[in-house]
Amino acid sequence: MSIQVLSEKIRALQSDWPDCWVGIRDVFRSCCERLGIASPLDQRASRLLAGGLSVSNFVEHSCKNMARKSKEPDYHSRLHTAIVLESLTALLLERRKIDKLNTQSLIREEILLMVAMAGHDAGHDGSRNSSICQLESRSFRFIRPLLEAAKCDERDIYAIKRIIWSTDPTLYEKLHNGAHTTDFDLRKPSWQAVLCQEADILASAIPEFEKELTRSLADEWRKIDPISAEGLLSREGRTYFLSHYAKFSSPAALSFGLREIVNDQLSKLQER
Fold it and tell me: Exposed (0-12), middle (13-18) or buried (19+): which is 197, by Cβ within 10 Å?
């Protein structure tokens, strides 16, 4: 899958939102099908997949309830979760193209990442962290009972918690730097975190989607922090995002040309 194909997937999701919304569970299932994740799986992977479907269903229904009360966040909505799942799927497919010898040998790890990102913003209320991993810890508390009910392996539940925690943006730079002390390996926790971080912000780094997504996040922040919300919409805000958060250091991200996409934007911002 190329950036162009991923962009088409994102445009389709945005077009469907919210009136013709397909649902997070269907997006999760569709992404898994494109990854070739289907029965028969070993018991551990099968339970993870069941847990992912349960988490997706929970996110859909809890957000739908918030939407009925006009409380679903402007940015951290079901649409964001779906875009992240599509972005992660694209990165995983690109990783397979690069690592041809391990195309099907890391299915469980791929499911693990998909489940984590299906639930990484579960219960998000549009607020911001006042302490490290505050919202991320809350999301994990929402989905842990679902993973336990699916009888997921405790090691996988812990890994999902770690991955969700890693989506706190203040940890991005540290975790990218740590991952680069070793060769890329999807079985390594540091690289799992990096790939999920990249999926979380990938769409926002693409110029086509920049304005709409940044405006959505600003609308969300404006309710609690109007000054920071306006900062997001400024040239300085965009420069900070691209410089500090849009790291894109995995082999899949580099193959997509995401580093060049980011550097090109930074060059244009400096010329203004």
Answer: buried
